[in-house]
Amino acid sequence: MKKARRSARHILDRRTVLRGMLGGGLVTLALPTLEAMLNDHGDAHADGSPLPCRFMTWMFGNGCRLEHWVPSTQGVDYALTEELAPLAAVKSYCNVLTRVDNPVAGRRGHHDGMAGCFSGHPFVQLDPNGAPYASKFGGPSVDQLIADAIGGDNYLKSLALGVSKRHNTAQGPTLETMSHRGPDQPILAQRNPLVVHDMLFNSFTPTDDPERGLRADALDVVRNDAQRLKDRVSKSDRERIDAHLESLFQLKKQLLAIPPTCDAPAPPDDYDGPATSPEPLEEVNAAMVELVTFAFSCDLTRVISYMFTGASGGTQFHMLPPSEFPEHPDPKADYSAADHHSVSHMNLPYEQDFIHRSVVFSMQQFAVLLEALQATPEGDGNLLDHSCILMASDVTEGWAHSENNFPLIVAGHAGGSIQHVGHYQAADGQTLSNVLLACMQAVAPAAGFTEVGGTDGTYDGHTSTALSEILA
Amino acid sequence: MLGRYSPLAGVVLAAALATSCGSDPPAKPIPTGDPPPPAGFEPPEPSMRRLLARQYTHSVRDLLGEDAALVAMPPADSSINGYEAIAASQLALNDTSVTEYELSARAVATAAMGDDARIAELLDCSPEGPSDASCHRSFVQRFGRLAFRRSLTDDELEDYVGLAQSAATELGDFHAGVEFVILAMLQSPHFLFQVELGEHRKESVSYNHLTGYEVASRMSFFMLDTTPAEWMLDAAEAGELDTAAGVREVARQLLEEPAARDAMQEFFSEYLDLRDLPSMTKQASEYPTFTTALAESMQSETLRLLDYLIWQAESDFGELFDADYTFVDARLAELYGMPAPEGGGWERMTLPPKQLRGGLLGHASFLAGQSHATTTSPTHRGIFVLERLMCMSIPAPPSDVNVELPPSSQAPTMRERLEVHMEDPSCAGCHAIFDPIGLGLENFDAIGAFRTKENGATIDAQSELPGLGEFAGAAELGASLRASEDVMRCVVQNAFRHATGHVETQGEQAGIDVITEGFRDSGYRFQDLLVELVASEAFRAVGEIE
User: Under an 8 A CB cutoff, do A329 and B409 touch?
Assistant: First the structure.
């Protein structure tokens, strides 16, 4: 193979670059919060500005088993049920919300839940006669609204992560991903921790790279092409071109950004390739949690969506032993190779016990995240103090596609904006949109959010009321 | 005398000639110009269509060589209404995909510069120093035409030549300019998307037609999954793709290329849900013979039957549904209780009649692919047939339904367990339509092996479906499907969706009818379907842009 004509074409070792920069005293785009920058109380910057708040959405698919999820008492002293027991170490950080209505429920299981839990907009049906069903979000997801408000100066405005690769990609964007900038703008999750590591730590261009400016020039030429094309295409294509232009602008910013001075964590394993069984869910989750922690404490991003298992997802919970039901007539049934969504629709005690134990397992993985954030000091507290994590699922209970009582947790204190209420049972009329607006206001008080969600004339998720019960 | 072409008139006339003049078989009617537009035909507004990941990579290969293709890393595709091509014509790019395209373009541009001969050929000039603008211009025009699939405008020429000059001057190297042009062009919407705008060409209709360049792109991406070759762009410029006859001629040439077989394999893998078979799992204690290797063989069997029908025998495509033979290797032969092929490898064999197999519905790719890990799923199998083979819509499942299926000790066969679907009126409305299809296939277990009993009870696979009649087993169901004109039309609809990136609208049904007639007239020869499809008004017309 002939050698490249151009000289000095080399792939830079970014880690070398980062190490080289550490002693350089550069002005950086984003800094981890240093002791010296805080006020005397350690709860704000020296100049009075609040410490950055982080936001996450987190989900597991196919719902819970209500009799094992809903605590029997309310308030801060509620007893943890079996499915909530994994959160014992971080109980004081978790607000468990029950009986919260889905204002956009009623058309299609799983789709309704994704739309209600993460956007407040009724989804848009893509249901032409004679073709398989699909849908897309009716408006932006809450993480993108928050990213637009607080993520503009970060290296990555937001990040979409996932763990199980057996998520549902056959019914359109609504089930495929949690992050949407608009109906035609889904952001797909990255499920390989090594790729995420590279996105966060190995993608900076050294300031002295002579090609930096030329790559930016190339982006300008591409933007010209896109601008000229806008005049000639349809209205919906103009919106798509606008999204392209926005991303080109963001990429140019990233290209010209100065690398941060954080120590990158060691690169994780390369979990590449198709979704063959068994998926190393715990290992991938652990690797992702480490990256989330570094990304937040390094301020490389402030907004992350996390799809542990997918909406109507087919994850195999191969690690769960068979249920013990000696009286059950099908004791040989073993669901460790089965598609989770399929099992969730088998309404016999054996299968539902399996689903219940899969929820416990998923909550254990959620706890790994919360505990890691809690264990990361920042200012006079920790990352979990300065975060808000909205955890939900795409249905209440999988077998019935029920929508009246989603498993829903708001974790973290959002720098003091969220108060700990323990188990809160919602009053009539309190909806998922009220919860979304509360999170938005808690995480980004300066943005002045006054409303969230929308309506299509029949299904109305719009609200101007935040769930004040969880706001300080 | 043949004047205005109408397919039916042509056939009738030819048949009349045949009966009066002798016993030669009737000749296919020869079109003498574009056929009149189908009555009531109304195409939708066009939409930019992102290249699928494989189309991006193949285009890079054809533009810049194998080494460049090896390092191409386009973002993943999404799917809507059954096809990635549909999602590609609706969804927008985002920060992640734009970043991925830039990384890919950099890697490809670097690798491409290593192919001296190709670069020299694209340059078509010898650079005199780093800032030789006219030689840069020569490259931009030549490569740009291939990458953008049309001639560049003056604005584009100026922009890209300017970039080449900047890079060459800054880095003191003429070829740096070339490399940065490649880097930029591969990120342009004109490369990443099929930009279809259309133009008004026929006075008699209010809608537009795709330009010759746009037809060249659409044909090449559909039939070969790659960018149109230079000779196709030349043909477009010469007006050869402005008529149905011209398009047919070019289409027949494309069918000769090996890439056509690969492209159709990809289409059928998506259409018949074959892609995920290698990652399918089954309960090991129930199905100890099931392995990933067996799943790969299942996938291969169906692709081989399709390849045989379309490219080797070139026979009636309906045979997909009821062929009394199939292709097996040792693993599949064992699953089907057939003798292993002599000397290993794959062999075409007649199916054992007792098993009631025949065609696609007796293939393990369908039977196992549309089952659970632990049991069969008559519902999934039924929905596959209804949605993919009959183009029928399935309503939403109801919420808050309490359905307890009895355990197998009380109801040993699946038919008995699913009876509760039929008893409850809120379930029966839909389940009465698709469950019977699956129940007629219950002699095939969750990995597609034949069985006569389940949990000790004899399976009753006699089933009936309104409109398709009675059947038991795959062969009888397949024969009913083959005989249905709706089923053959559904094949056309699916090819159309993938080819055009949208589900056919009400206004396009008349256009689909024309293609279906052509398919039928050819004796359902699939290569003829491809030719008829790309030559059709429905493929070459687009609505006005508002």
Answer: yes
Using one digit for the tens of pLDDT, what is the confidence trace for A433-469?
Answer: 999 999 999 999 999 999 999 999 999 999 999 999 9
Residue with tokens 């209010």: B206
Mutate to test the interface with A, among B187, B291, B489 (most CBs of A within 10 A): B187
Residue B24 has pLDDT above 70, yes or no: no
Of B47, B180, B286, which is closest to A214 when you measure between CB atoms?
B180
Interface probe for A, chosen from B77, B102, B290 (most Cβ of A below 10 Å), is B102
C-alpha span between B337 and B327 (Å, rounded): 13
A 10 A CB-CB count for B121 gives 10
pTM of the predicted structure, to 2 decimals = 0.92
Residues B407-437 pLDDT 10s: 777 788 888 888 877 888 878 888 888 899 9
Check if B545 contacts A (Cβ < 8 Å). yes
Residue with tokens 């492209």, as numbered in its chain: B263
Residue located via tokens 């998926």: A279
Sign of CA pseudo-dihedral A353, A354, A359, A363:
positive
Q: Name the residue among A170, A217, A225 with its Cβ closest to that of B188.
A: A225
DSSP reduced 3-state for A169: coil
Give the Cβ contact number of residue B213 at 10 Å. Answer: 21
Q: How far is A88 from chain B (nearest CA, A)?
A: 31
Most distant pair of Cα atoms in chain B: their distance: 88
Of B118, B396, B314, which Cα lies nearest the Cα of A171? Answer: B396
What one-character DSSP code corresponds to residue A445? G
Q: Residue type at B210?
A: L
In this complex, which of B115, B285, B372 lies closest to A338 when CB atoms are compared?
B372
The CA–CA distances, whole Å, from A146 to A29, A118, A143, B88, B97 equal: 19, 12, 5, 27, 21
Closest CA to B530 of B231, B264, B164: B264
Maximum distance among all alpha carbons in chain A? Answer: 75
Cα separation of B485 and B360, whole Å?
A: 17
- How many H-runs (helices) and E-runs (strands) does chain A carry? 12, 13
Classify the phi-psi angles of A32: left when phi > 0, otherwise alpha if psi is within -120 to 50, otherwise beta: beta
SS3 content of chain A, % helix, strand, coil (to 5): 35, 15, 50
Between A11-15, A50-54, A275-279, B529-533, the lowest mean confidence (pLDDT) is in: A11-15
Phi, psi of B47 (to 5 degrees): -145, 145
Q: Residue B1: CB partners within 8 Å, gap ≥ 6?
A: none
Peptide bond into A278 cis (omega under 30): yes
Optimal mutation site among B49, B67, B77, B93, interface A, most CBs of chain A within 10 A: B93
CA distance B3 to chain A (A): 37
In the prediction, which pLDDT does A323 show?
79
Count other C-beta atoms under 10 Å from residue B117's C-beta: 9
Residues 170-189 of B with CB under 8 A from A: 170-171, 173, 175-176, 179-180, 183-184, 187-189
Query: Residues of A with CB below 8 A from B516's CB?
Result: none
Q: Exposed, middle or buried: residue A34 (CB in 10 Å: 0-12, 13-18, 19+)? A: exposed
Cβ separation A337–B167 shorter than 8 A: no
Secondary structure of residue B364 in the 3-state scheme: helix
Say what the alpha-carbon torsion angle B68, B70, B75, B79 is, to the nearest 10 degrees: 120
Q: Let me know: does A461 contact A104? Beta carbons within 8 Å.
A: yes
For A56, phi and psi rounded to 5 degrees? -135, 150
In which element (H, E) is residue A125 found? strand A124-126
Say if residues B353 and B476 touch (Cβ distance below 8 Å).
no
Flag whether residue B158 sits within 8 Å of chain A, measured between CB atoms. no
* Cα four-point dihedral sign A210, A214, A219, A223: positive
